[in-house]
Amino acid sequence: MKLSSYLSKLRLHNFFKSQPQAPFKFCLIVGLSFILLMLSVLPAGVSAEDFGPEIYYQDDNVTAELEPVMEESSPLVAARQLADIIGAELTWEESLEIVDLERDDFLVRLMMGSGYIQANDSTRLSPLEPKILDGTGYVPLMEVMSSFGYQISREIAGDEIESFQIYRPETELEEIFWAADGRQLVFDMDEITPYRVIETEEEGNITIEIDSAALAPDYVDNASDRNFNIRAREDEEENRVRVTISGPEELPYRRDGGVDELAGNLVVDFLPRLTDISWDEEEGISIKSNDHLPEPELQMLENPRRFVVDIPDMMNSSIDLEIEDNPYIENVRKSQFKNDPPTVRVVFDLKDEAHLSHERVEDEQKFVFQPVSRVESGRVHDLEILEDGFSFITDEDIEPEIFATGNPTRLVVSMFNTDPGENFPEEHYPEGEMISEIHTTIHESNTTRLVAEFEEKVGYNWSSEEIEEGGYLHRIEFADVLEKLDLSEQPGSFGFDIELSSEMSYEVKEYENPRRLAVDIPGLSEGEEEIELPEPKGFVEDIRMGRYDGEEGDTLRIVLELNEFYGYQVMSPEETDRISLALNRDVEDRQENLVVIDPGHGGFDPGAVASSGLEEKEVALAISKYMNELLQEEGYDVIMTRRGDQFLGLYERVEMANNSNASLFVSVHSNAAPRSAVSGLETYYAPGRKADSYDLARQLQSTMAAELPLTDRGVKEDNFTVIRDTEMPSVLLEIGFLSNPDDAELLEQDDFREKAAESAVTGIINYLEGSRNGVE
What we know:
Layout: H1 3-9, H2 13-18, H3 26-40, E1 54-57, E2 60-61, H4 63-66, E3 69-71, E4 74-78, H5 79-86, E5 89-93, E6 98-103, E7 106-111, E8 116-119, E9 122-125, E10 131-133, E11 136-140, H6 141-147, E12 151-157, E13 160-167, E14 171-178, E15 184-189, E16 195-198, E17 206-211, E18 213-222, E19 229-235, E20 240-246, E21 259-262, E22 265-269, E23 274-280, E24 284-289, E25 297-301, E26 306-312, E27 329-339, E28 342-350, E29 355-359, E30 366-372, E31 378-386, E32 389-394, E33 401-405, E34 410-416, E35 418-420, E36 427-428, E37 435-444, E38 447-454, E39 460-466, E40 472-478, E41 482-490, E42 493-505, E43 507-511, E44 516-522, E45 540-550, E46 553-562, E47 567-570, E48 575-584, E49 591-599, H7 616-633, E50 637-640, H8 650-660, E51 662-671, E52 681-685, H9 690-707, E53 712-717, H10 721-724, E54 730-737, H11 741-747, H12 750-770, E55 772-773
Parallel strand pairs: 1-13, 14-18, 31-35, 49-50, 49-51, 51-54, 52-53
Antiparallel strand pairs: 1-2, 3-4, 4-11, 5-6, 6-7, 7-8, 8-9, 10-11, 12-13, 14-15, 15-22, 16-17, 17-20, 19-20, 21-22, 23-24, 24-30, 25-26, 26-28, 27-28, 29-30, 31-32, 32-40, 33-34, 34-38, 36-37, 37-38, 39-40, 41-42, 42-48, 43-44, 44-46, 45-46, 47-48, 47-55, 52-54
């Protein structure tokens, strides 16, 4: 080792250059010179005892083997010993003083005295140069190991480095890219390691931490675009990768279910977003999305004249809003109007007397609005309440837009180009059991809207006829009608779902030669010819409908013709507005008395965090433990996916449930929202799982909402992994919002947690006792 290196090490070189050679320092100088002379003859490799920090490779102490030398707070180590430890082949080219370290077709090349390090086809500059010390080649440990894909963290106490920890990451992030549908951001990884969504000070951003991970040497960001900026960086001290996703404005995002696991990769799910707004002479104005567009809320406003389209469950995006010049639309603008539910608002500034009418099209990812000439408004008048409905008269022959909504149950009738006339009151409270209230408004500048509120869900039929007195009589008659049929493939079964306008009784029958199931529903009004039959799939060979005169009168029969299958289960109660059948394609061996309770999050992943510091993982586990005790007291067996504070991957939870053959699965969570005012209780089932899971969700939601002091946010559908891929009826509970101070205060109380568990268990037992097995 050079004398100047030791002078620098001991901070004496500058001292000698800058201080006067005063006689009284003579003794000090002589003494130090003697020490330096002795140091100059020491061997280059300092013993492990003399080298301060220890070096650990995969938790093994390798300090002695590496013969380290410390330079600029970073170690140089013997190249050959390092190669032996990591299993690399070392080649020394003496004439050029080049050392090659090669492992698994990956080459790291260094030249003595040069700071450049070549790693396969890339080159980078190291702050330390490799060098020969006492005939031994020494290389910079940190740079060589990171070139081979290792991570090195320092453990520091005060100002001193105590140790270097060298880890081989359990996974590498190779690439981030968008899935074909543009809704899923895919993290291409070797394997999934513990991860979580973390709180950051940057509002509207999403940050995901992945434990025991590193960026691959050739990591690629193929996702950043005009709507999203992706930043991935390594936290070597914590042995993690942190990925931050940001956009031009706050990203609507849910903590539960926002991150999914698919084929060994992490997937971040986003809401649909708008992809185009454009004008066409023949079609009119169109709005397009990268997924299904839900029913919009439309408004026509004046001063200035504008047409407003509010699209729920949608996130804003950057798209070109320059449309071709046309006689109707002056300008287009849009914004993220709300975050609960996430709603995008599109505003069309209209010219003169222009009006837009929503035209239905087959493409579910597209809205079309056609210009409509504004004519003198006709009247709507003479509202009359009938025994089985209501009627009104219009001057012109129009077809009202009619739709039903739930919670509360309402029937909405919109009539374009009309004004209210005589005997058409703004408010009316009819006597009778069906309608509780009718009120009318001018919803848009020339659209009359009638809203009828009901005590319970109802169906209806609409008809109109020209009358002698002039005008057109419209009748809306209440009727029990068939609304929809659905056949879906589910884990381990097919689901057949029959949606009705109101709760009705039914009977399921099984026949042989050919094998078939029949669902008989007496008392339904005619009109089923308007219902589209699902395409047969799997062991369902045909679906048909017909009527016959049964014991209870006119009866609609829906028939499923089947090839080999092992049985069925009726998942709905005896009176319902949604008949659900699970058709089993494998021999069912469900343990009817076994329930899986899944406390969300855990360990590395706290879930949502309240301003008080209360973590979702702790709330979920506490409520789940109470549920476990109560179910066992009622004679049920329970599997809990976790009983302590540990991290479990989503598919670990799914596998545990599927291997158990349990009768149902309940995942317990609490929610969070960007706005602290959002609060309440909601229950989720997965898309395509109506037949086996909707009734469980509805039972839990209604029972818990009746018992808990939380806003009833209803039953919802979402693609959470743990309820999508489990092979039994499965739901996910969101009990309160930790982002809401009142909900968070409740969730911290043991009394509330016990009450939440009691109401959930009541719902589970009601469901299990209400579902019926078919013949196998």
